[in-house]
């Protein structure tokens, strides 16, 4: 342990520390600046709206769920299954003529069921979170394939269901689109839960020092269950928003969120000195990924190069943050 | 590694390490029961297929399964070595998420170099160089920069997958060469070349990991990095090596994959979960519940036989993933119960 104290630190050292902590923020601003100069359409209201609604909202809600799980020292590989289950049940119920509110409720319950399954596997059967959620991921994929005769999408573009979808995805309150309002609500709730509540302190303790949390008498299994169920519920909300936006259910589409959400959460951990996930950090990670994807598209990079670009960028942000912090020690 | 991660990894491994040493006879019997139980489950399922799946026991079918398992097996060995050297902590332990994408990139390089008219040796070297280069990137990120393996290999996975797409434009790149022809149709003692690849690779790995000082040190590094360092082992060197090695495994697997399909095809990244499942499931076959070569090989074959048996029984292939997932959960749950109450904490 040789963390230099501020009093003895030279200017260069302090600058290094600053860059290590805020490399995500600096990169984010630099990238926004770059795209604003490189592409005339980047800073237009229409484009930013598009980025927010199509690239940020859903990923951010899933990433918030993962932030809770990763804070507790676990991991949830089955976020895609929760997304898909909510989407599948919701769309199937609408297709069968049930009401929108009923469909949303049962859809969210389907996602919660995935969370409950994870919780049972992890707290009762004592399976490590990685393996438990990996198993649930496999089972969830099979379930969807069996329920849709091998992965046939369900499209409900017009008619009754189309109206229900529009009521969710195409409405706005005071000019703010409903999905964005949902995201804001999720942010507030998760922030209060994780950073301002007893539950949040228990979660942080479990993540930072599992042994100490156990010996201090925390009800670790109960808190863990809440963590995985909460994450699944958030993923369910994304599933509902997803199917309402694309007006369909496409099997196995939720998996696309997994790696981006893990990436965003861990990019966010570079903000904190102890490498802990935070709500603010995660949101920054999501914004960074979303802006890069959009910006590379605008300046004409094709999908293949985008993937390389995002990989390199994430790598560099991590390298700067982790590398500088290591150099200081 | 920072002091905090060291501490966390230290306490975690200390708890699981303590188990075999202080366990009483009952617990040792429990662990043995799990090991035997896992093997018995494996045997029972095979027996079921042998009795009810037509043609399951034909030598043609058995060889076919071993052939099909060769790619997964080589990748799973790479992953197992990374987990051995990095420790099996969920978020901070060793893991290489880029291994499947790396295989795709190596396959693309291999097929592209062959198509450009170069001989097998050049293409093979190019593929191995590519695999090791990606591995080096992982090693630099994990060992040099201290980035969490989960995170570093995630970024590298994106880079490798994107590079593959850029190289192939998401198309199938056909490939034909004497080496590929030999791998597909060559055989010795009635066993095909691909099957031999898995057998020989397993044998080499078995000796390398379980019979050499290096292998023993690797386990020490993964089990308790601080103790390993105190004992004078160069920890960064060993951890870095595991990522280079998994890159090498990806390259070898890519050649096998190209030979099976006579082409490099997009979508190899989907193998990642199976590779993880095989490497992690393999731990239940070991006495100390750590990844071993034998255990990994058994679980690879198990996954192969499971898919094959279902096919022969005419069960929809949609079930395979689910049953595979359920079995992982079952086996691991039984294991963690046998570990005893303290170990689960």
Automatic annotation (TrEMBL), chain A:
Record key words, sorted: Cell inner membrane, Cell membrane, Membrane, Transmembrane, Transmembrane helix, Transport
Subcellular location: Cell membrane
Name assigned to this protein: Branched-chain amino acid ABC transporter permease
Subcellular location, principal: membrane
Signal peptide: none
Annotated InterPro entries: ABC_transp_permease (IPR001851)
GO molecular function terms listed in the Swiss-Prot or TrEMBL record: transmembrane transporter activity
Gene Ontology annotations for the cellular component aspect, listed alphabetically: plasma membrane
Residue intervals passing through the bilayer: 15-36, 48-70, 90-117, 129-147, 167-194, 226-246, 252-271, 278-298, 304-324
Topology in the lipid bilayer: Multi-pass membrane protein
Taxonomic path: Bacteria, Pseudomonadati, Pseudomonadota, Alphaproteobacteria, Hyphomicrobiales
Organism, scientific name: Mesorhizobium helmanticense
One Pfam family per UniProt: BPD_transp_2
TrEMBL record, chain B:
GO molecular function annotation: transmembrane transporter activity
Lipid bilayer topology: Multi-pass membrane protein
Membrane-spanning ranges: 36-57, 69-87, 99-118, 124-143, 150-167, 179-209, 239-259, 271-290, 297-313, 319-338
Segments of this protein annotated with the region Disordered: 1-23
Bias-annotated ranges (Polar residues): 12-23
Localisation per UniProt entry: Cell membrane
Cited InterPro entries: ABC_transp_permease
Main location: membrane
Pfam families reported in the protein's UniProt record: BPD_transp_2 (PF02653)
Record keyword Cell membrane present: yes
CC annotations in GO: plasma membrane
Keywords: Cell inner membrane, Cell membrane, Membrane, Transmembrane, Transmembrane helix, Transport
Protein name: ABC transporter permease
UniProt organism field: Mesorhizobium helmanticense
Species classification: Bacteria, Pseudomonadati, Pseudomonadota, Alphaproteobacteria, Hyphomicrobiales
């Amino acid at each position: 342990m040789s963390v230099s104290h501020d009093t003895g630190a030279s200017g260069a050292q302090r600058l290094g520390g600053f860059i290590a902590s805020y490399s995500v923020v600096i990169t984010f601003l630099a990238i926004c600046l770059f795209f604003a100069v490189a592409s005339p359409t980047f800073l237009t209201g229409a484009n930013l709206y598009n980025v927010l609604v199509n690239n940020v909202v859903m990923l951010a809600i899933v990433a918030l769920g993962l932030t809770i799980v990763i804070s507790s020292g676990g991991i949830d590989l089955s976020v895609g299954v929760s997304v898909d289950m909510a989407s599948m049940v919701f769309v199937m119920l609408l297709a069968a003529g049930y009401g929108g509110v009923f469909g949303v409720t049962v859809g969210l319950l389907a996602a919660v069921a995935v969370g409950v399954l994870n919780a049972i596997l992890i707290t009762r059967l004592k399976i490590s979170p990685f393996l438990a959620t990996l198993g649930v991921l496999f089972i969830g994929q099979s379930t969807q394939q069996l329920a849709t005769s091998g992965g046939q999408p369900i499209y409900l573009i017009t008619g009754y269901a189309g109206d229900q979808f529009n009521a969710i995805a195409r409405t706005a309150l005071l000019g703010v689109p409903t999905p964005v309002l949902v995201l804001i609500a999720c942010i507030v709730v998760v922030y209060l839960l994780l950073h301002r509540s007893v539950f949040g302190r228990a979660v942080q303790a479990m993540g930072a020092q599992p042994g100490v949390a156990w010996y201090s008498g925390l009800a670790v299994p109960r808190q863990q269950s809440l963590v995985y169920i909460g994450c699944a519920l958030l993923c369910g909300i994304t599933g509902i928003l997803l199917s309402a936006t694309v007006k369909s259910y496409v099997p196995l589409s939720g998996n696309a969120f997994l790696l981006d959400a893990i990436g965003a959460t861990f990019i966010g951990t570079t903000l904190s000195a102890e490498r802990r996930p935070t709500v603010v950090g995660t949101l920054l990670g999501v914004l960074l990924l979303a802006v890069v994807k959009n910006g590379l598209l605008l300046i004409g990079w094709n999908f293949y190069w985008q993937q390389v670009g995002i990989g390199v960028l994430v790598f560099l942000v991590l390298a700067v943050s982790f590398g500088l912090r290591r150099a200081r020690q | 590694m920072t002091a905090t991660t060291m501490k966390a990894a230290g306490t975690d491994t200390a708890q699981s390490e303590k188990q075999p040493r202080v366990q009483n006879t009952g617990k040792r019997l429990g662990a043995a029961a799990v090991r035997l139980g896992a093997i018995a489950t494996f045997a029972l399922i095979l027996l079921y297929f042998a009795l009810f799946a037509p043609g399951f026991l034909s030598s043609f079918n058995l060889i076919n399964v071993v052939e099909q398992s060769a790619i997964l097996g080589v990748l799973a060995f790479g992953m197992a070595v990374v987990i051995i050297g990095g420790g099996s902590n969920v978020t901070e332990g060793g893991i290489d998420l880029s291994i499947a994408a790396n295989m795709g990139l190596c396959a693309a390089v291999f097929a592209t170099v062959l198509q450009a008219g170069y001989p097998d040796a050049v293409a093979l070297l190019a593929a191995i160089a590519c695999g090791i280069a990606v591995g080096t990137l992982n090693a630099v990120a994990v060992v040099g920069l201290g980035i969490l393996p989960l995170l570093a290999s995630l970024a590298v996975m994106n880079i490798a997958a994107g590079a593959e797409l850029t190289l192939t434009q998401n198309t199938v790149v056909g490939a034909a060469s004497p080496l590929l022809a030999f791998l597909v149709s060559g055989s010795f003692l009635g066993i095909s070349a691909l099957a031999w690849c898995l057998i020989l690779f397993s044998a080499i790995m078995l000796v390398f990991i379980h019979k050499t000082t290096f292998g023993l040190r690797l386990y020490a590094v993964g089990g308790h990095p601080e103790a390993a360092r105190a004992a004078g082992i160069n920890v960064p060197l060993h951890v870095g090596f595991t990522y280079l090695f998994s890159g090498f495994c990806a390259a070898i697997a890519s050649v096998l994959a190209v030979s099976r399909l006579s082409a490099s095809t997009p979508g190899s990244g989907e193998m990642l979960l199976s590779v993880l499942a095989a490497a992690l499931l393999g731990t239940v076959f070991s006495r100390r519940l750590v990844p071993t070569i034998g255990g990994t090989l058994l679980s690879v074959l198990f996954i192969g036989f499971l898919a094959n048996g279902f096919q022969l029984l005419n069960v929809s292939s949609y079930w395979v993933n689910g049953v595979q997932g359920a079995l992982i959960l079952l086996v691991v749950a039984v294991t963690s119960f046998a570990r005893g109450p303290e170990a689960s904490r």
